[in-house]
Design goal:
The chain is α+β, with helices and mostly antiparallel strands. It has ten helices and nine strands. The strands form three sheets. It has a five-stranded antiparallel β-sheet, sandwiched between helices. A hairpin with a 5-residue loop joins strand 2 and strand 3. 42% of the residues are buried. The model has no long low-confidence stretch (mean pLDDT 92).
């Protein structure tokens, strides 16, 4: 039995709630499985859909809201933002132990490492990155009221709300004392900038959370909307500054393909975003620091879930060490970004 899937009741639910599906079903885990669990579901005729549910074990109260994620992609379907079709959502924990939702299966490649992009021609890498920033501009152009997301969250004080939320998450999930995290939070709180408008903010926007049509050099679908909220557009732009590596910088994050020849620099992405949206991005260093700090808190949460057995079979010790070190590196990166504002 796949972890997190009670096959018989889930199969019955799928037949009743998703048009065109026929039992029996095959459930195959896809993706990294470090947060929400995602499965490719294949029915008796070979038709495929995708099912998402929260991670196993206890989770923080404000995280992993399946109905909310389903609502977001359903609302964005008629916009220029490419998303899977939202097919059905189950909020009855009795079916499989947790809520889940079902979306269409979109063909594409997840460019979540340099190895994943190694075979792409340099001109394709540039086209993909440019489309990534164009799709972000399209997302930030969505009228939140027109698509029915105006009440998704509070519209004002985005950074202040996020600082409070993730500080609580840190207090609830930290496994050790790490003074840099608290220091960054305090420094960010002292310098909160004026909000640059109200948009649908993805919260985890990067190539690794997209399906890419590598033949066309375009984003086929934006995935993983669990952190989506209403907020400041520069938060998503700053997040890209944490995950993105310039081609001449060396190294790069393990879960991002940037850094290879052909990918544009972060400065080029900023310029393209500013040109497309008309927004001033000169203060983006604050949002880079904020995003790096928030990622440190998220990394610690994943590390804690592994330690407490909520992610199924425990990973190798070196994987645990990677998450532990990642939290520390991200906190240090946030401090470094703050120094740019001094």
């Amino acid at each position: 039995m796949p972890p997190g899937i009670d096959v018989d009741p889930v199969s019955a639910w799928l037949v009743e709630h998703v048009e065109g599906l026929a039992a029996p079903f095959r459930f195959e885990p896809i993706g990294g499985g470090r947060s929400n669990l995602t499965y490719l579901v294949t029915d008796d005729s070979g038709h495929t859909v995708v099912l998402r549910r929260p991670p196993l074990g206890s989770v923080l109260a404000t995280a992993h809201d399946m109905a909310r994620e389903h609502r977001v992609i359903a609302a964005l379907a008629p916009t220029a933002v490419p998303v899977p079709d939202a097919l059905a959502v189950c909020t009855d924990d009795a079916i499989s132990g947790a809520p889940f939702y079902v979306m269409s299966h979109v063909e594409g490649v997840v460019l979540d490492s340099q190895a994943a992009a190694a075979d792409l021609a340099t001109d394709v890498r540039r086209r993909v990155a440019e489309d990534l920033i164009d799709v972000l501009a399209d997302l930030h152009a969505v009228d939140v009221d027109e698509v029915g997301l105006g009440d998704l969250a509070r519209r004002d004080d985005y950074v202040e709300r996020q600082l409070k939320r993730w500080s609580r998450q840190w207090a609830d999930s930290k496994t050790r004392q790490l003074p840099a995290v608290e220091e960054v939070a305090a420094r960010l709180a002292r310098r909160i900038p004026a909000q640059r408008g109200v948009v649908v903010a993805h919260g985890d926007y990067r190539l690794g959370n997209c399906l890419t049509n590598v033949d066309a050099g375009r984003i086929a679908a934006v995935l993983d909307w669990e952190l989506c909220t209403l907020g400041d557009p520069l938060a998503d732009v700053g997040y890209l500054g944490v995950t993105w590596t310039d081609p001449d910088a060396g190294g790069g994050r393990h879960n991002d393909p940037s850094g290879l020849d052909g990918f544009p620099t972060y400065a080029e992405l900023l310029e393209r975003y500013a040109r497309r949206t008309g927004r001033d991005v000169s203060g983006v260093a604050y949002y880079v620091a904020f995003s790096s700090w928030r990622l440190a808190v998220i990394s610690e949460g994943v590390y804690a879930r592994y330690l407490h057995g909520a992610m199924g079979d425990g990973p190798a010790e070196d994987v645990l060490d990677t998450f532990r070190q990642n939290t520390e590196d991200l906190a240090a990166g946030a401090l470094a970004a703050l120094e740019q504002l001094a």
